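Field guide to reading this record: the first block holds the primary sequence, the second block holds the structure written as discrete tokens, and the final block holds curator observations. Each block starts with its own label. This record concerns RIIa domain-containing protein, catalogued under organism Oryzias sinensis.

BLOCK 1 — SEQUENCE
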Amino acid sequence: MAEKGVETKLDTSVLNAEQQEKLRQFKIKTRIDNEKYIRAHPEVEVLVGDFLREILLKRPADIREFAGDYFSRLNPSGDSKEEGNSDAE
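BLOCK 2 — STRUCTURE
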């Protein structure tokens, strides 16, 4: 099992050519969809920038705990206002 906080790169060589192409197309579509979302919601860049600035200023030992506290302060009620995933574009 991988260590906590350590990413592992997936070995895509075990996929056949058709599976690799499907994976490539999926990655491209995902990047395009993500870019569209970020362009439609410029506040994401502000939130991420503010969060990153706080991390670099405070340099917490446990970034995950810090992130939980940081974003909980933005929404103290804990309510999720996620609109859901819509493919009606």
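BLOCK 3 — OBSERVATIONS
Helices lie at 17-40, 43-58, 63-74.
The CA atoms of residues 20 and 26 lie 10 Å apart.
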